Amino acid sequence: MSAPPIELSTNSYEYYYYLVKLSDVVNARPSRPNKPSVVYEQSTGELSITWEEGNDKESSSVDLTYALRIGTEPGKGDIVYAHAMADGTRRNLMGGNQSTNRYRRLNTSTWKAGKYYISIQVIDPNNRGSEFSEEVIFEKKEQAASFTMQYVSPFGVGDTCTIQLHHNVSAGVEFSLSASNGMIVDTCMDNASYKVVFDEPGLQTISLITKNSDGQNSTVYEEAVMVRPISMTKIESDSRITLALDMDEDGLLEYFVDKEGFHEVNKDGKYDRINKMYNNHTLISDAEFVQPDYAVDINKDGKADVFANMSYFNSRSWFTMLNSGNKSMAINADPITFNFYISDLYGLVDMNNDGNLDIVAKENYETSIYSSQNSFTEFVRESWIRNVEAIRDFDGDGLLDVLVQEYNDELRKNTYYIYKNKSAFEFVRGDLLFEEAYGESLAYIKDFDNDGLLDIIVKKDKEYYVRWADGDITKLEGVTSIADMQIVEQLGSTFDYNNDGYWDIEASGGIYDEEGILLFLPNHQYQFIGGYKFNESNIPFVLPNGDIRNGDLVCMSDNNKPESPTGVSVIQKSDGVYIRWNHSADKETPECNMRYNISVKHNNKSGNGAYLISPCNSTKNGVHVPSTLKLVEDNVYLIPISSIPVGEYQVQIQGVDMQNQESDFSEELEFEVKESCAFDIPTIIEVGVATTIKVLANVSAEIDWDGGEIISSDGNQYDVLWNSAGSKIIKAGDYEQRIYVSSLPSAEFSLPKKVLQKSTVRISVNNAKNGEWSVSADKDEFVGLSEMDIDILSVDSVSMLVRFNNSGEYVIRNTVKGELTSVTCEQMIEVSNDNVAPQIQSVFSKDNYYHILWDNNDVSEDVIGYRLYKETSYANKFELLYEGDLTNTLFVDSTSNASQCASRYALSYVTTYGESSMSNVHQGLHVMINLGMMNTWNLAWKKYEGRDVSCYRIWSGTSVSDMKLIGEISGSLTSYSDAMTDEACYYAVETVFEEDNNDAVETRSASSRTSDLFMSNVVSTTSASQISPAESILIIGNDIDVQLTESTQIYAYVYPYYASYQSVNWDIVEGAELATINSNGLLIPSGNGNGEVIVRAYALDGTGVYADKTITITGYPEIPDSIEMIELEQPVISKKILIGNKIYIQKSDGTIYDLMGRKVINIK
Is the backbone peptide bond immediately before 1056 cis, with ω within 30 degrees of 0? Predict the structure, then answer.
């Protein structure tokens, strides 16, 4: 029950207190429980304790908790404390230590041998405890076996783990400690402390067993530790090391730090700053930021000198430090200045193997290569290449090649090509190394699986994949980034941190995206190890104790140094001196990953200039290679002949493994370089084309080019041009070499100046098949012949037959590609549409033969004759019937029989350059007679084909020589009926063409018929017979759509099948402006638009039976109802003009330019 609040006021705060009256009833203690039960499993050391359910007067049993007490003496809780006094009074308000549980399992392996007293207490919800139960006594006879592990994380292979036993070793007790894949390297404190080292990575186990004096074994006590594949520890260091080199060649590396200078190792194995004057130079002490420095032997005395940057903002300058020995450096403060910033320097490498390191740097979006000259004081920009990705010896010839990224417009992705080093800073595009898939980007190139082939890491959608050389693809799960691939790979670019013979690279990844190392393992496996953060400088170097330091991380190493290379040989060839050797054998590094340091020294020479190729360690065994030195990646090295003077030399090779441990040098091999001169000449040389020729020589001599003209030269490289073909001899002193200069290919061809449209034109040319033919209508833009509707009909070894389908003026161009250059020839041609084909006047019958008549008016001067063609038994297929000159205009077809069937003819011009297109096809009349109905003679014929017919005139008489005009019908009709007489009659039909319609035909008589030029064959009533008339005609096919550029054959069938005349006359009754149809039913669109054409087929027997078919013409461009006119800017059109004896370009605006594109103001 609550009382009213008592209000207390202090300043602006108000406090309220409530008085609560509690119950007067006293809470009773829970009943004392029975003693617990215990079960002990000796083999495992596990003790199981259980107890009965408690009892309380006021509370339910489910609300009770339990407290367990275990002690080494009665009533004591030194093993498990119950938080209660001996009488059961509770020391806290938190309930029992076992909660509501009524059992407990304990591992007793850490307990000493002896008696243990166990009891239980019940606690009610008001936290009042019962009396403790009667104690049960558990006696442990085995000795305790437990320990604590102490190690520095991350813990790796080779690191030391300290094992501290939890109890002192008792007399008569034996301890047995074991470690999976590990060994005990030390014990101390009466075997109570052990030091363990593991030699295998992974989850490893340490086990402890004890045995007492009675021979009783304890349970096995185990602890596990994760062992990383590498042992790497962090040291305290704020320095960023940019270069490590053995300055005094004592076998201990010194290192260089910007702002601090050179450091040396002291007797304690730590590094101190070298206390010498040069180390206080302002170029060192005043540096603003850290950039890499490089080791180089400037004076060729064998020792490593330094090429260092002037480290201030936006610096483009460098300086040199000359190694004087005894850890002294002579600084040359005269700046060496370039067009690139010091941060854009990729590295120092010997690109032409002349022993002088060259500079590779990013400059204006290009990679520039500067050759070093005059003891590293002068530099010449030799080459510049865009999009360089890597510089390696990709083809194993001993010269460094260049990997270039090229965007393929057709594939729309990046490709990577190897540009082969041809020495003298010349690079030639070679093999395709890699082609990106969609969304990929190149990240790294290296042989990660030791198969001798390059593997490629690509990035796609923030994930990384390895594209192995054998075609497999591995996704690098958990890797979020990898170190940038260096264009110039130096000694520390990649490293084998776990010394397993596979390259490793710095990367980031894991759950927390931490920095670390990506380890490559056998069988395309990998492992990312996080927790290692490298400094930006990233220069691994060997410490005095053999471990590897990389920035502020030290990697423990038990690496073995390689064996010396063997089998060194030297061969002099025309292009240079080849040095070869057997790969160094190494316990950890496979042959394919060994690298080599080359020493080529002048015999019996020391000091400055003693070395041609300096190893930067004076060829001393045990002296480390500088950290920035670019090593040779294969077992061959080529020194170009122009880079090695005549003389005697000695060569030695040093192997370097994947942890930068050097072998001893190979035995000295002396060799002599003799005078040599040769010419590197392309296999094809053409007249008038400048040819690049390299002089491969170590002697100087004047060169006789045998008539060749030197266009340009650069060192030992010349561009030479010969103006005549044939054999040439190049001489240099006593050396000579024979070459052959080939003639240029010919693109010449002959073409008539003017031809007829649609005529076939023969172009005379010797290599038509090898040429690329193009045409231009505006004399500017050239396209393929087909794009101008010029057909190539045939090509042989000496000519090409073409057809010009459109009129106009054209420029024809023939381009023939030679081995080195292309040659073009252009010819102008005019295509005329005037009188493009001859015209047949008439095909008529006389003496039962068809006569073909044509005119020869307005014939072009190029026409030299005619060709007459006759249709074969196959529809629309023609064969040559007659060829003649211009004097004849009439031909009698003796193979024809006008009384049996009609014949079709076409005529063409024979020209000096080929043949014109054919004339319209002409078919003369073939008249047939039959006995009609109601005592009539019925004449029928197929209509004349080839000219428009005005009318047909019917002639009749009792003899062939005495026929009179008896009638005239429309040119659209093809039959005529005449009353039957008792005497025999003869009939013939005359064709009157529309252009002849003005003749006085009305009064024409037989005696007035002076010409048979338009007559048909003659038929007689004596040969007339009864016919079976046509009843219907079927035009086959459903609705027919004809494309504008197509012709379509239409067929008609006359029914019944026994009708006497199965042929039909074809006509177009609607849409005649859209198409024409010939006597065989071939429909040809006229090109005048789209629409419907109605085709009609007439029966020939005069019955009047016909059939119609609607055909749709399509494909003609639609003309819009309205056209919006817009004003376009007048294009500037150029043409060539001749002024005096010079050619100029004149634009449509009147301005004149010379052929170099310069505007001409005054022309004299």
Answer: yes
Number of H helices, E strands in the chain: 1, 92
Q: How confident is the model at residue 1129 (pLDDT cuts 50, 70, 90)?
A: very low
Q: Give every CB contact of residue 409 below 8 A, 6+ residues apart in sequence.
A: none
| Averaged pLDDT for residues 524-530 | 91
**Other CB atoms within 10 Å distance of the CB of residue 573:** 12
The whole-number average pLDDT for the span 375-392 is 86
Q: What is the model's pLDDT at position 1127?
A: 45
Strands 735-741 and 849-854: unpaired
**Residue (of 687, 704, 812) closest to 743 by Cα position:** 687
658: helix, strand or coil:
coil
Residue type, 759: S
Rounded Cα–Cα distance for residues 901 and 924 (Å): 10
**Averaged over 521-530, what is the pLDDT?**
91
Could you tell me the two tokens for 266?
A: 């002291």
Q: Beta-carbon neighbour count of residue 861 at 10 Å? A: 8
What is the spatial distance between Cα 1097 and Cα 944, in angstroms, rounded to a whole number? Answer: 15
Cα–Cα dist 526/518, whole Å = 7
Confidence of residue 491 (pLDDT cuts 50, 70, 90): low
Q: Which one-letter amino acid corresponds to residue 194?
A: Y
What is the pLDDT averaged over residues 452-468?
A: 92
* Helix or strand (DSSP H, E) at 877: none
Residues 695, 730: Cα–Cα separation, whole Å = 11
DSSP-assigned beta bridge partners for residue 727: 740
Query: Quick one: pLDDT at residue 189?
Result: 61
Q: What is the pLDDT of residues 1047-1088, one digit of tens each?
A: 788 888 889 888 888 888 888 889 888 888 888 888 888 878
Contact 715, 789 (CB under 8 A): no
**Quick check: 722 and 685 in contact, CB under 8 A?**
yes
Distance CA 382, CA 1043 (A): 63
- Residue ranges of the alpha helices (H) in 536-675? none
Q: Are 559 and 546 in contact (CB under 8 A)?
A: yes
The per-residue b/e assignment along 109-129, b for 16 or more CB within 10 angstroms, e otherwise, is bbbebeebbbbbbbbbeeebb
The three state secondary structure string of 221-238 is EEEEEEEECCCEEECCCC
Q: CB of 974 within 8 A of CB of 1098?
A: yes
Higher-confidence residue: 683 or 286? 683
Handedness of CA 472, 477, 481, 483 (dihedral sign): negative
pLDDT reading at 1002 higher than 80: no
Please identify which residue in the block is written with the tokens 């407990």. 104
Q: Which of 905, 907, 874 is nearest to 888 (CA)?
A: 907
**Residues of the chain with pLDDT > 70: what percent?**
88
pLDDT above 50: residue 1000? no
How many residues are there in the chain? 1164
In this prediction the pTM is: 0.61
- Judge contact between 165 and 64, C-beta under 8 A: no
State whether residue 1037 is helix, strand or coil: coil
Distance CA 8, CA 161 (A): 65
* pLDDT computed for residue 1136 by the predictor: 57
CB-CB contact of 142 with 219 (8 Å): yes
Q: Compare 191 and 513 and report the one with higher pLDDT.
A: 513
- Beta carbons of 247 and 254 less than 8 angstroms apart: yes
Tokens of 587: 């316990």
